[in-house]
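User: Second chain of the day. Same drill as before.
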Amino acid sequence: MEFEDGFNVITGETGAGKSILLGGLSLALGKRADLKSISNPDKKCVIEVVFHSDSPNLKLFFEEEELDWEDEIRLRRELAPSGKSRAFINDTPVRLESLAQLGALLIDIHAQHQTLDLFNQKHQMAILDGFAQQKFLLEEYQSYLKNFREDHKRLEVLQSRQSELLKASDYKRFLLEELQAAPLKIGLKEELEEQHKTLTNASTIIEHLSASHQLLTGEEYGVVDQTRNLKQLIAKLSTYASHFEHLDQRIESVLIELNDISAEIELQQGQVELNPSLLDEISDQLQKIYDLEHKHQVSSVEELLEIKQALEAEQVDFDAIQDQINQLLNSTKEQADNLRVIANKLRIGRLNSIESLQQALVVNLKQLGMPNARFKIELRKQDDLNDLGIDQVEFLFSANSGGEFGSLKKIASGGELSRIMLSIKSVLAQYIDLSTILFDEIDAGVSGEISNKMATIMYQLSHHMQLFAITHLPQVAAKGTYHYKVLKEDDGTKARTTIVKLSEKERIQEIAQMLDGKNYSSSAQEHAKQLLLNEN
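Assistant: Same format as last time:
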């Protein structure tokens, strides 16, 4: 289906299937898919919507999403029988969120239930900011706010981690200091154990060394002297036969070794001493190592060193966390200060726009049959930053002269809310960058002259953008530049819904039927002609 620029009206009997158009659009714009709405669940369903626009906002979106820009924009949704769906922008696969974001920039679909948006503070603030032309300032604020909240969340995580470390930090610091004070190095325990064993048995060692030295060096019967005598005897034999020379050399080697052993024993004798104080000192050092091994349930100095290294790393981590916390405290404070500056700019723009917006809404409502309607927009400053700055807003309304102001939710009726919504859309039309708007029976519950006024306002809106109105009112249908009708055909086995563009003659028949029913009279037909003549 191809639609025209300007004011497009869509009519059809209740149940004819106008909702199919809305459902298809919603799917193509990234809404949640319901496979129950697909006529043939065994086949892939494809919905595509094509827009034509050269909006700067759209170009910025394409740039941010790294998509190739074209002024013909195709949004496509594919639903598989399995329930999986795929989204495309200009034939490029995208996330569903991206499709929805682009859809919101292209078309505003206003269904009947969306008048409830008027009760929403965020929607009310969007109306005020739209009128104040603060879209980009608000986007800047929200971008900074996102970064601020991310940093604040990181700060909370770090502070929580620091708190956990802090609970055990005193004890762990004590353990670390205890390990740092202990004589810990690889091989030290074995060295100390050997020294301890030597000092403990010093008397026995000295006694044995002395006896050994005596055996080696004693006069006449000492092993060294005896070996020396042996060498003299063999040396004489070597003068008689050459094979004794080898034996003489071997005895010479033994004599050299015995002398070396004797010298080593004498040296050891000088080194070994009875030193109780040194023994006590070594015993203390060993006991410290044994105690630490027992405390940490390990069996080696290497394992103690690993524990020490881990505790040192935790201490470094604790110090690093504190540094990060300090940095984030400073940055979040600076960010909060910047946010308040922007929030105050937003507040000033809002305050400066309130009176003009109130007046513009009242003017429109007078045209829509509410001559005594009054608006009062209250902007209350908050201490804390929120998604929209430092303000909270409330649209107050009074339908009658002298009546008290109250919230829209409590004061306005359903018909009044529809007219208020149309009035707001009309006021904002010149300030928002939107190519298409669709009203789904926004005129429900109104009739007579008011419906004429609503049709006029919608027609005026269509000068700024492409506008669709799904309507049951002949006055609105007659005001449209182009008229489409939704039809349902049912052959008894399957229903089929179609939409057709009406000719001038078909428009007269359709409006006459809207005025007087299927069996419309000639006067209804004349009335329809008159409506079309007056409206065009």
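The longest strand covers residues 374-386.

User: Great, on to the next one.
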